[in-house]
Amino acid sequence: MQSGKHKTSSSTNALLRTLACILLTLCVSAKSVVATESTATIRIAILPCSEIVKTYIQAQPLQTYLSHQLNRQIEIIVPNSYQEFKRTIHLGETEFAFQAPHAYLLLAHQYDPRNLLKALTPQGTSVHRGVVVTRKDSGLEKIEDLHGKKFLFGHPFSTAKWLAPKALLEGKGIDLTNDLQSYSHGDSCEAIAMNVYLGQADAGAICDYSFAELAENSSHEEDEVPPDALVIIGTTWEIPTWVFASRKGVDAETVTRMVNALTALDRRRPEHREVLESLELGGFVKARDTDYDSLRKHLAETDLPSQ
Question: Is 114 in the same domain as 249?
């Protein structure tokens, strides 16, 4: 009898040890999964509105801020074409995207409409316009005067500096190929304004808030356009600001934390000012897909990037 009890006890102990090992293995595996999820890199694709390297540099303060807020590694991706941007989103190679509004409209089916954000201009508005500027002494007074002139648009990905002013010129009877001496694509609003001021182009398209900042500038630095040197001869229709969107399928907690971090940015707080000023933004607010219906209507007859 004693011998049988000892044997049963040994078997029980062995079984308990086996179960303990299994449980320990499961715990370790669970911890590994959690660790992998909590340390997984969050990727944000940005469709550039100016030179790619410049866009990447401008996003670095945002990358640092989000890394601290979400306690995750943040990777900024700046594709070199719209097709590459589209592919990155389609293949799930990025969790979030920051893009011009017309690019958002082309890819809206890829995003979660419940978690859209729109950027604010430095003046705090969620809409703006493109403006056509020329030197005050150019003799040009209206869009129709651009026949035979050199024109400088913004980046081909820009709604305010390319698509909208292109539609404005064409609506006034200016065919870009046949009526202009030439046209080309520039970089930032500041660079376009400087080229117009220096006579490299007769006129150019910039954002209205950038023109307001030029007009208010009183520093008179040699590398800046004097505040009264340029005038507006044309204004586009109203354009929604840039869209920050989450790709469908991104886990809800990550999306919520990202949205909270971005909407918390406040230019009045010194620790946030560098992030927003580097991006030339005033902050982020929640948006709805219907906020872009007016743009959908305007772009119905405007050439869009290839889908």
Answer: yes
pLDDT grade for 12, boundaries at 50, 70 and 90: very low
Q: At what angle do helices 60-70 and 252-263 cross, to 10 degrees?
A: 120
- Residue where the block lists tokens 């999964």: 33
- The residues with which 119 forms a beta bridge, in sequence order, are 284
- Same domain (yes/no): 187, 266: no
Q: Confirm whether 143 is domain-assigned.
A: yes
CATH code for the domain of 161: 3.40.190.10
Question: 189-212 as b/e, with b when 16 or more CB fall inside 10 Å?
Answer: bbbbbbbbbeeebbbbbbbbbbbe
What is the rounded distance in angstroms from the CA atom of residue 69 to the CA atom of residue 80?
28
Structural domain contains residue 10? no
pTM of the predicted structure, to 2 decimals: 0.79
Where among 236, 268, 291 does a domain terminate? 236
Q: How confident is the model at residue 138 (pLDDT cuts 50, 70, 90)?
A: very high
Torsion of the alpha carbons at 269, 273, 279 and 284, rounded to the nearest 10: 10
